[in-house]
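Good morning,

Both structures are done.
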Amino acid sequence: QVQLVESGGGLVQAGGSLRLSCAASGRTFTTYPMAWFRQAPGKEREFVAAISWSGSTNYADSVKGRFTISSDNTKNTVYLQMNTLKPDDTAVYYCTAGGYGRGESEYPYWGQGTQVTVSS
């Protein structure tokens, strides 16, 4: 089993920044690739960004150029740096692991989610 714990969410004004963290524990050798998804109220959960063991990254068009996913392999932690935040970025952000691609069904392990609220 793999456990994922997110942190770093909160309330920020439009144009501001936040950094989310996701710490993985358990059978971490199975966790990569890792990814972030988000779910806004009344909407389906959507892919945000993913990172592979080798460090290659993949982003949704809506966040490309504003968000950066990175990892610290020594700490089994993945980060999501979010800059130039917009009200449309308001959502619960979920860390996930062990999958591949942009489909949520591909990922077997999920964190509990952290709320990000961007005020206008």
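Second structure follows.
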Amino acid sequence: QVQLVESGGGLVQAGGSLRLSCAASGSIFSIHVMGWYRQAPGKQRELVAAIINGGSTNYADSVKGRFTISRDNAKNTAYLQMNSLKPEDTAVYYCNAEVASWYGSIPTDYWGQGTQVTVSS
């Protein structure tokens, strides 16, 4: 089993910054992709940013230029630096990781419990 623990959410004024962290632990051989998703009330969960093992990144258009995803492979941890936050960024942010638990195993998706980000206007 694999556990993802998020931290760093909170309340911030528009224009401010927050940094989210996601630490993976448990039965981990390799993590192919780590990503951040968010879900606002009444809306579907959407991809915010993702980073693959080699370092390539992908961002939602709405956050390009404002958010930066990174990872520390030695710590099995991903980060999301969020700058110039807007009220529409308010949502529960979830960490996702595609994890292979042993050599040759099929990677499995795991999710964190979510962390609330609230941006006031």
